[in-house]
Amino acid sequence: MLKELDLRANMPKDEYAPLAEALKPRLAWLQQEAIRENIPVIILFEGLSAAGKGAVTNSLILNFDARGFTVYNTRPPEPSELRLPWLARFVEKIPSRGRMAIFDRAWYSALSMGLDSEKELKKRLREVNIFERQLADDGYLVLKYFLYIDKKEQKKRLEALAREKSTAWRVTENDFKNLKRHGEITDFYDSLICATDTPHAPWRTVAATDKRYVRAAVFSSIVENLEKALAKKRKEISDGAFTPRIDPRFRLLPHKTIGELDLKKSVGEEEYRERLKEYQDKLFKLQNKLYLKKIPVVVAYEGNDAAGKGGNIKRVAEALDARGYAVTPIAAPSPDELHRQYLWRFWRALPRTGHFAIFDRTWYGRVLVERVEGLTPAARVSQAYNEINEFESMLARWGAVIFKFWLAIDKDEQLRRFEDRQNTPEKRWKITEEDWRNRDKWEAYTQAADDMFRYTNTDFAPWVAVESNCKRYARLKTLETMIETLQNRL
Fold first, then answer.
1. Where do the H-state alpha helices sit in 141-256?
2. What's the number of CA atoms in the CB half-sphere (13 Å) around residue 78?
3. Directed axis angle between helix 151-163 and helix 182-196, to 10°?
4. Which residue of 225, 248, 290, 365 sits 20 to 30 Å from the alpha carbon of 51, by its own alpha carbon?
5. What is the rounded CA–CA span in Å between residue 240 and residue 254?
């Protein structure tokens, strides 16, 4: 594929000059239009060492308003980044709507770092395709360019860079070692491009021997793709029906509906106190073992309003060393969060290896409150079930233990707790008008929760329904579930 490129392709100066004169103002105008239409753009340059990635990046950004883009140069990960899922440091950098992120190398350069098997590389390639498709589904324009030169041209450029004091730092001993493996590396990139050349994020391979030809090819392609993205955004598209489609590779487990739960389960005060201390002691010891094994834990809480999530989380947190966990309460997204792919804010709160991340409400808000309140189009809600499964499967492959607790109470118990909060001054902050309004949509929320179970109860991240009319019972059940699962994992 790369070897089939015409590396003699060139563009004479007299041909390039008028084309550049036309392309440069067009690029500037299209950037402003993308800002107006809130289209986020990712432009990614990959290629062999000395193929000209930096030069074409520098030429490109001269055409854009500097306030509307950020350039990232991918470097080896920091030690702290190695303790997160490998894609996390790139997810962090995705642009907000209307902005551009331009990568001189990106996730593709990190694909093979620290891998010891072809099987693991294939998993990462699949994760890249998932990541890029999720971005495209959310309105991102993802443009990928691979710049290629032959061995003779690469040798000439590396030697020229090494001779000059001002550029010698850009060439490493590893670059010259890789030069000897030019054919092998070309084959590797061919297989990588083939595996990740998708309709939502296609590759454009560019013969990079002639610098004017490269700029003309890249600039023309960016103009064409920005114009298509703008036309697509401005075209009126119907919202679409609610039709979740789940990747058949995900094994979905059966799950009780909320109506089938026995909410009368309870535990007496004395038994509760004895078992609570026993379970908290066990969880504390397990936390230390998990830290030594560098196993991350993600604990996700969802449930009815006033179901006792806060008190439940408190009893879990009491058992843990404060240096090894963080509780993240999830409210309505901030303007900055709204302007990015919706899973972005959850990626940023993931735990390091050996740590716990506890979420008070989660990414499931997309298929619960956003669905019921009509905050998100039905078509995007439909996509979210599969996106969530993909997100959780990445966490599971990374090595995380995932707990998903749904705390369930009945309507009468919720009313009792609402009134108690309303009538108790020190609890009044817990009740809002929104809580009362959500209560009027009890059936809609129940249906949304049942659909959530149906489409996201996977074998690697199953739901645990926690009968919570009795808070004592609920707290013990979550602790017991965590202990049993973590013991089995260890």
1. 151-163, 173-180, 182-196, 211-234
2. 6
3. 110
4. 225
5. 28
Residue given tokens 């809609």 in the structure block: 444
Residue 21 and residue 13: Cα distance in Å, rounded? Answer: 12
DSSP strand pairing (356-360 vs 463-467): unpaired
Measure the CA–CA gap between 481 and 463, rounded to whole angstroms. 11
Closest to 8 in 3D by CA, of 146, 194, 162, 152: 152
Alpha-carbon distance of 297 to 358, in angstroms, equals 8
pTM: 0.90
Among residues 159, 79, 138, 70, the alpha carbon closest in space to that of 114 is found at 79
The count of other CB atoms within 10 Å of the CB of residue 462 is 16
Task: Report the chain's terminal Cα–Cα distance, integer Å.
Answer: 46
How many of the other CB atoms lie within 10 Å of CB of 163? Answer: 10
* Token pair of 219 as six digits: 């600039």
Amino acid at 381: V
Alpha-carbon distance of 397 to 401, in angstroms, equals 10
Contact (Cβ atoms closer than 8 angstroms) between residue 479 and residue 316: yes
Residue range 293-297: mean pLDDT, rounded: 97
pLDDT tens per residue, range 308-360: 999 999 999 999 999 999 999 999 999 999 999 999 999 999 999 999 999 99
> Percent of the chain beyond pLDDT 70?
99
Report the 10 Å Cβ neighbour count for 279.
21
- Alpha carbons 385 and 391: distance in angstroms, whole number: 10
Distance, CA of 480 to CA of 409 (rounded, Å): 19
Neighbouring-strand partners of residue 218: none
- Report d(CA 340, CA 259) in Å as an integer: 36
Rounded Cα distance between 112 and 92, Å, is 20
Q: What is the DSSP letter of 105?
A: S
Q: Using CA atoms, how far apart are residues 240 and 226, in angstroms rounded to an integer?
A: 25
R_g over Cα of the chain? 26
